[in-house]
C-alpha cells in the first residue's frame, strides 16, 4: 500500500512539474541553459517538506539526463548544471550545492555537501588579469554507487563505488572503490573490505 501511495504521488508531482519543465525548456532555447536551470533549481529548493522532495525529484527526472524520479533532494539544495545524472535511491541532504556530476544509485550525501565540477573551474596563472576573466574547465564528477558523503564534505574528484567520505573532508583526487577517506586533503584511512588500517605493514594501496 505504501509503495502504491508513493507511485501515485510521483505521478501527481510529475504532472505538476511538467509545466515548469516546459517553461525551462522554452527559456533554454533563447538563453543560457545552465543559467535557466540554476534559476529553476533555486526556486524549487525553497519548497519545504515532502511536497518539495517529490516536486524536485519530478522536475530533475524530466530535466536531467537518465535521472530517476525515485530520489530525495533536500530543502535548500541547488543543482547548478543540467548535465547531471542522479540514479535511483540517492539521498541528498539539505543545503547542498551540486555541480556537474553523476551520482550512482543508493548513495547518500549529508547536509551541506558541495560537489564541484572538477578542481579547475577557475584558472589563475596570469596575475595581471582578474581571475574571473581567465576562464576554467568544468568536469563531470563521478560519485559511485552505495557511497556515503558526510556533512560539509567537498568533492572535486571521482569517488569509487562503496566508498565513504568523512564529514568535512576535501576530496582533491580520485578515490578508489571501497575506501574510507578523511581530512584536508582527503586521504585513505582504510578499506571497507579490510580491517587493516592504511599505512600498516602489508598495506600497499594509495
Automatic annotation (TrEMBL):
SUPFAM superfamilies linked to this entry: Trimeric LpxA-like enzymes
Keywords linked to the UniProt accession: Transferase
Keyword RNA-binding: no
GO MF, one example: transferase activity
PANTHER family according to UniProt: SIALIC ACID SYNTHASE-RELATED
Name assigned to this protein: Transferase
Organism name: Marinobacter salsuginis
Taxonomic path: Bacteria, Pseudomonadati, Pseudomonadota, Gammaproteobacteria, Pseudomonadales
Amino acid at each position: 500500500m505504501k509503495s502504491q501511495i508513493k507511485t501515485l504521488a510521483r505521478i501527481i508531482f510529475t504532472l505538476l512539474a511538467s509545466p515548469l519543465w516546459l517553461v525551462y525548456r522554452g527559456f533554454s532555447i533563447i538563453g543560457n541553459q545552465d543559467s535557466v536551470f540554476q534559476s529553476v533549481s533555486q526556486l524549487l529548493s525553497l519548497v519545504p517538506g515532502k511536497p518539495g522532495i517529490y516536486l524536485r525529484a519530478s522536475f530533475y527526472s524530466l530535466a536531467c539526463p537518465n535521472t530517476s524520479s525515485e530520489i530525495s533532494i533536500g530543502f535548500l539544495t541547488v543543482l547548478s548544471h543540467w548535465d547531471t545524472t542522479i540514479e535511483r535511491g540517492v539521498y541528498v541532504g539539505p543545503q547542498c550545492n551540486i555541480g556537474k556530476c553523476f551520482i550512482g544509485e543508493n548513495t547518500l550525501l549529508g547536509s551541506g555537501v558541495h560537489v564541484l565540477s572538477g578542481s579547475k573551474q577557475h584558472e589563475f596563472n596570469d596575475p595581471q588579469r582578474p581571475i574571473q576573466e581567465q576562464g576554467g574547465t568544468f568536469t563531470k564528477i563521478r560519485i559511485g554507487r552505495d557511497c556515503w558523503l558526510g556533512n560539509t564534505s567537498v568533492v572535486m574528484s571521482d569517488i569509487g563505488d562503496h566508498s565513504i567520505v568523512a564529514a568535512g573532508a576535501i576530496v582533491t583526487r580520485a578515490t578508489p572503490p571501497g575506501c574510507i577517506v578523511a581530512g584536508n586533503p582527503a586521504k585513505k584511512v582504510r578499506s571497507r573490505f579490510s580491517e587493516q588500517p592504511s599505512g600498516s605493514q602489508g598495506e600497499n594501496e594509495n
